[in-house]
Design goal:
Blueprint (H helix, E strand, L loop, with lengths): L1 H57 L2 H16 L8 H8 L1
Helix pairs in contact: 1-2
Length: 93
Amino acid sequence: MREIKDKADKSEEMVKEITRDIKQLDVAKKNLTTSVTTLNHLQMLIEGIDKIEIAIKKKSYGDIANLLHPVISVLEHFQPYMNIPQIQELSAK
């Protein structure tokens, strides 16, 4: 009987360890997904700003108007990061 109890305790401990590992992997996956999404938004923001700057130089006001809304939409994702100087700089452009 004691042997069965010991095996059950060991099994329970293994399940706890596996569950803890899975939780850590879930948090890592969430953080990685958030990071990739943020980097994609940053890339879209930089490209949009670059296109607007080119359109300004060419005085292509129609292109500027078409580009402004998407850039502003992407910029909204960065509101929580406005205390970061680089994001402030991009926003000011």
